[in-house]
Task: inverse folding
């Protein structure tokens, strides 16, 4: 398990700004959090080195690019051994439409979140999944009717 990093209020302020807009200049961030440029830059570098900031990316509007359907796929498997898990990892890594994969506690073993163009696109991916992954007991898809909240930002402690 990853070690928790101690973050002070200035660090949290920097992180909040970067989560909103990672393209902000160090000067702009420093001005907003009440630091000079060099100490702000050092804090950002320390947060990167500590693994708190893992990458800076552009968030894309999926619908404007034709990915209008979000699908949540619940998977139950008959096997849980390392060999099966390795095959599963390889299979899902090779499917770009899988945005997230979570190993679950409870009745469902894994949940996948997919971004696809339509139901036919999902079916194509489903066919790839069942061909590549052995010993699936059940694969159930639920289609999102409306995305009511989506964020990549972590909450700031109170």
Result:
């Amino acid at each position: 398990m990853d070690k928790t990093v101690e973050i002070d209020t200035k660090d949290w302020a920097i992180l909040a700004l970067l989560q909103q807009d990672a393209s902000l200049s160090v000067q702009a961030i420093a001005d907003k959090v009440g630091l000079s440029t060099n100490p702000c830059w050092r804090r950002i570098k320390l947060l990167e080195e500590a693994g708190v900031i893992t990458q800076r990316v552009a968030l894309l509007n999926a619908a404007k690019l034709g990915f209008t359907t979000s699908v949540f796929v619940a998977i139950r498997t008959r096997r849980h051994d390392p060999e099966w898990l390795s095959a599963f990892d390889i299979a899902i890594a090779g499917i770009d439409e899988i945005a997230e994969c979570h190993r679950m506690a409870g009745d469902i073993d894994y949940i996948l979140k997919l971004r696809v163009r339509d139901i036919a696109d999902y079916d194509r991916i489903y066919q790839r999944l069942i061909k590549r992954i052995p010993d699936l007991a059940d694969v159930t898809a639920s289609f999102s009717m409306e995305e009511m909240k989506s964020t990549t930002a972590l909450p700031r402690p109170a």
